[in-house]
Request: fold
Amino acid sequence: MKVKFYGVRGSLPVCGREFEKYGGNTTCIKILREKVNRIAVLDAGTGIRNLGKDLMAEGVSQNIINIFFSHFHWDHIQGFPFFGPAYNPEQKIGIHTMGKRKITNLKEIFTTQMQKEYFPIQLEKMGAQFYFFSHGDKETIHGANVKSISQFHKFQGGSYGFRVDDENVSLVVCTDIEHINGIDKNIVKFAQGADLLIHDGQYTPEEYEKFKGWGHSTWEQCVEIAIMAKVKRLIITHHDPDHNDKFLDSIEKKCKKIFPDTMLAKEGMEISV
Reply:
């Protein structure tokens, strides 16, 4: 399994020389299952634009491109209208949610953000064939075992983390999560023994005192969970838009002193799991 980061920023995209190393696009992750040569996408922040360009340039062809959503805050869907394969009439695209969400009309989320007042091309005119799926907590999808877990995030329905067990390896992604009353032991259990944990670490402990209740974690909490869950590697993502390259470098050094197999996610970074 390979994981490639196309967007690692939280809240809103940023640009400037001080953000070149880590990148400025919002959350989007590509997961490649190598044995079956299938890709899946997690979230559609602005990073999905470059993902789409790469897929078209590489001539990637599969009957359906599946996009899974942790939740539907703006920074996790804002790139969807710019996803190139969505304009190909021969392409099928699956829009997936998991968990016990109270979403009565999944399609409506995307038609609303692309209605004519907000965007010149409406969903039904993009061209691709769209399919909408709402799964439970556990599913087998194209041979991979996928689980979800409810996370505290400040909006109705919260957010959901994912665990993918496939090809004898395990990947856990927990973005937009807050450990509101200390480390959530359910998350520790969910991530137990994972080969790779990708976790939201938007704040420093000092910043968290100001932003408690906003739905995000600290880098210290990420490291603590990695140790408690005995994961092999940790990647911290969803970087705050005010955290420049120099600042993030300093955070990564602090993390490595406690849990050496830690990295901060960088746009374009590809990891074998």
Residues 223 and 258 are 7 Å apart (CA to CA). The chain has one domain: 2-272.
